[in-house]
Amino acid sequence: MMDNYGTPSLALERGEGAYVWDTDGNRYLDLLTGIAVNALGHAHPAIVEAVTRQISTIGHTSNLYVNEPALALAERLLDLSGVDGDGRVFFCNSGAEANEAALKMSRRTGRTKIVATDGAFHGRTMGALSLTGQPGKKTPFEPLVPGVVHIPFGDVDALEAAIDDDTAAFFVEPIQGEQGVVVPPAGYLQAARAITQQHGALLVLDEVQTGIGRLGTWFAFQQAGIVPDVMTLAKGIGGGLPLGATIGFGDAAHLFEPGHHGTTFGGNPVCCAAALAVLDTIAAEGLLEHASAVGKEIATGVEALGHPQISGVRGAGLLLGITLREAVSAKAAAAAQQAGYLINPIQPDVIRLAPPLVLDEADAHRFVADLPSFFAKIDATEES
Ligand code: PMP
């Protein structure tokens, strides 16, 4: 493989629930789950059954035809959104692709300017990268798509100043996962909704990381009590299989016309069958409430440690950022790995947790209790 990801720290061989095993047979509690992916944990029987049934019935159909799992999934997503009126779904294979589709939909408004936020992560393809607000990831690939303006995340005044009547869309994440689980001030999404509406610009919510139950509701926008024009999804939706979705609500449902956009595997029945199993199981097992409750227990538990290295916990549901007073997250994650936990040093001073929604309370408590030992190990190494 090309050296895109640096030196891997583990080779994983199998998983079950919230646990994974490496090729040497060591077990880890997976508090990252493929970066906010496996809502149901690893090897969930509902996904195994749905995928097996579907691949042995019909595995791929091409977009010249339609298939039942894709139709059912589109309908289910619209239903779970709770949004009245028109809604239409475009299926693709990843978060970047879901945002590419949203970007092309934005161009269909006849306007060219796009507003996005500093620190945002929307993917690595050229369009999605142009929306991304992390300069280090972008500069090696310039020039990018023109017309994208970046403003500080969470800043309503900056949005008001940047947006005008030539603005096609404002792209924003409800919580910036890759920037270190950065939560905007209360009222931000509501203000973004009002400002975009005022200028006839689309509000595009990138829910690739926050959607499908991660924050304890099906979608983050439901917590804000707003409706976006466009929502993008990926990661958790496919239960470990590659699937992305771009959903247009209201007039935005009709921005694409036949021939405008497409992809070979989009709406692949196997991925859609897996996604239906994810949604069914989240509902049947009460995993939204569970994610909310366990997330709160982790947050209050970590805060209650009163550990001198920990400055706070932010996020919602099971997307949490533990903020540190020093840039030691990579060392803490290495110590955690040795102790049998996979955690993510997303920023030098932020540890991200995005465990499966099925994470049980006992495992959550065990992690919180062991957290100080990871920092102790760093201190011990530095002293010796
Ligand atoms: N948007 C957000 C908010 C993300 O977190 C990510 C992935 N980290 C992406 C888009 C890109 O998704 P993918 O890697 O599936 O292209």
TrEMBL record:
N(2)-acetyl-L-ornithine binds at residues 124, 263. One of its GO terms (molecular function) is N2-acetyl-L-ornithine:2-oxoglutarate 5-aminotransferase activity. It catalyses: N(2)-acetyl-L-ornithine + 2-oxoglutarate = N-acetyl-L-glutamate 5-semialdehyde + L-glutamate. It is an enzyme of class 2 (transferase). Its cofactor is pyridoxal 5'-phosphate. The keyword Cell wall biogenesis/degradation does not apply. Its EC number is 2.6.1.11. One of its GO terms (biological process) is L-arginine biosynthetic process. PROSITE patterns: AA_TRANSFER_CLASS_3. The modification N6-(pyridoxal phosphate)lysine is found at residue 235. Pathway: Amino-acid biosynthesis; L-arginine biosynthesis; N(2)-acetyl-L-ornithine from L-glutamate: step 4/4. The keyword Amino-acid biosynthesis applies. Binds 1 pyridoxal phosphate per subunit. GO terms for cellular component: cytoplasm. Pfam families: Aminotran_3 (PF00202). Pyridoxal 5'-phosphate binds at residues 95-96, 121, 206-209, 264. Keywords: Amino-acid biosynthesis, Aminotransferase, Arginine biosynthesis, Cytoplasm, Pyridoxal phosphate, Transferase. It is found in: Cytoplasm. Belongs to the class-III pyridoxal-phosphate-dependent aminotransferase family. ArgD subfamily. HAMAP family: ArgD_aminotrans_3. PANTHER family: ACETYLORNITHINE AMINOTRANSFERASE, MITOCHONDRIAL, AMINOTRANSFERASE CLASS III. NCBIfam families: argD, PRK01278.1, PRK03244.1. May also have succinyldiaminopimelate aminotransferase activity, thus carrying out the corresponding step in lysine biosynthesis. This is Acetylornithine aminotransferase. It comes from Lentzea tibetensis. The lineage of its organism: Bacteria, Bacillati, Actinomycetota, Actinomycetes, Pseudonocardiales.
